[in-house]
Amino acid sequence: MLFKKNIGIDLGTDTTQIYLEKSGIILNEPSIVAFNNRTSRVIAIGTDAKRMLSRTPAHITALRPIAHGVIADFDMAKEMIQRFLNQNHLPWSWLTEAVVGVPTNLTEVERKSVEDLLKESGANEVYLIEQPLVAAFGSYLDIFQPTAYLIVDMGAGTTDMAIISLNGIVVSKRIKIAGDYLNNEIIRAVREELKLIIGEPTAEEIKIAVGSAISQTEKLEVVVRGRDLGTGLPREAIVKDTQVRLWLHRPLRAMVETMKELIEVTPPELVGDVYKNGIYLCGGGSLLRGIDQLAQKEIGVTVKTVEEPLTCVARGTGIITENLNKYKHLLNNFSDFKLNK
Length: 341
What we know:
Blueprint: E1 2-11, E2 15-20, E3 24-30, E4 33-36, E5 41-45, H1 46-50, E6 60-63, E7 66-67, E8 70-71, H2 74-85, E9 93-102, H3 108-120, E10 125-130, H4 131-138, E11 148-154, E12 159-165, E13 168-175, H5 179-194, E14 196-197, H6 200-210, E15 221-228, E16 234-240, H7 241-264, H8 268-277, E17 279-282, H9 291-299, E18 303-305, H10 312-322, H11 324-327
Parallel strand pairs: 1-9, 9-10, 11-17, 17-18
Antiparallel strand pairs: 1-2, 2-3, 4-5, 4-6, 7-8, 11-12, 12-13, 14-15, 15-16
Helix pairs in contact: 2-3, 4-10, 5-6, 5-7, 7-9
């Protein structure tokens, strides 16, 4: 038992990660809840619930309580967070202070709902910090210098991008073209072109196995199974990397155009810094083959994928929790400049 513990939380659309002070990331689970419609009871969370996604009988629903980085179902999100916080590897304490990474440009109501969620789940103090800023910490960038970095956090629900200088966000932008959006594009294209109905887990498999932003030297293909649109019977088909690249071309192009728009409204001196320092990609979307090369070719600036991009935000919250008094002035401090799309 502890008197006080500090935790950092990356409350993602796809994954929730919890960092415990002096212990590192101790929880990394899918942000999914499965509940029984008849009894209204939660029967599984995290990995167990993910196995049920798109495979449940009529009386069980598996859902994501976090959508596009914001809370979509407060009660289910609360149940999920409470269970995560009560797991054995998280020690009980009288006081809990939580640092939570949130998307940029949230409304006051959306921010308040995150605070209420954590407080009702057992946290005494909740500090919010925008994800691109915390991702910069997790990427070990020296953001306290008078120089600018462009951070692009490509998650499942949203892609968050921001110009960061002197430990603050100068301009930022958030779009809903992210990992889940790419999955939906694959589902739609497989249905239209291959006349096959597949679910989200299969679309994710296709994206990971053969997805790419630019042509690769190696030819890739994957066998997928689903329901035939005409007969309604099971069927399998081969999906090639060239097909997937064509399907993802439009959303990836829109993502790169958004980066350009952000740079266009950035003060000229900071644009020079971005050219010198490069663009940093993090989040699950940055693992798509060739996404860094596509952005570099289109924008003309060096693009780097940070080390371990999947845990970048959680690591950043961890660095802050380890030095909470030192970084407290950065928390709950939101930039007023919004460039929404």
